[in-house]
Amino acid sequence: TARIWDVATGDCLQVLEGHESGLSSALLSGSDEWVLTASWDGTAKIWSATSGACRLTFEGHGSRLSSAVISADDRLAMTTSWDSTVRIWSVATGDCVRL
Q1: Does the pTM of the predicted model rise above 0.90?
Q2: pLDDT tens track of the chain, all 99 residues?
Q3: 86-90 and 76-81 as β-strands: parallel, antiparallel, unpaired?
């Protein structure tokens, strides 16, 4: 579970639930539109920062994820895994575009 907080008030704005295991990373996109989470369940997810809805799930690694980042233009996401692979994903389609 990840949470989005209002830094000015300390209020919790969204609760992002849907991974089957703990998170290894979570970050807000440069546009503040999306949240990218990476989990020990081997998946990464893109969430709407405003609604909290899960938009995409990236699946394909053979082990838990260690980190995830999103490009400055919000077009690509990159995940790293304990399976010793790095994957680059299209945020528009959810497809793995590079392994």
Answers
A1: yes
A2: 999 999 999 999 999 999 999 999 999 999 999 999 999 999 999 999 999 999 999 999 999 999 999 999 999 999 999 999 999 999 999 999 998
A3: antiparallel
Contact 42, 67 (CB under 8 A): no
The answer to whether the beta carbons of residues 56 and 45 sit under 8 Å apart is: yes
**Polymer length of the chain:** 99
Is 60:81 a contact under the CB 8 Å cutoff? no
Rounded CA-CA distance 32/43 in Å is 21
Are the C-beta atoms of residues 51 and 87 closer than 8 Å to each other? no
Considering Cα of 84, then 85, then 91, then 94, what sign does the dihedral take?
negative
Q: What is the 8-class DSSP label of residue 32?
A: S
Q: Which amino acid makes up residue 87?
A: R
The token pair at 26 is 């979570």
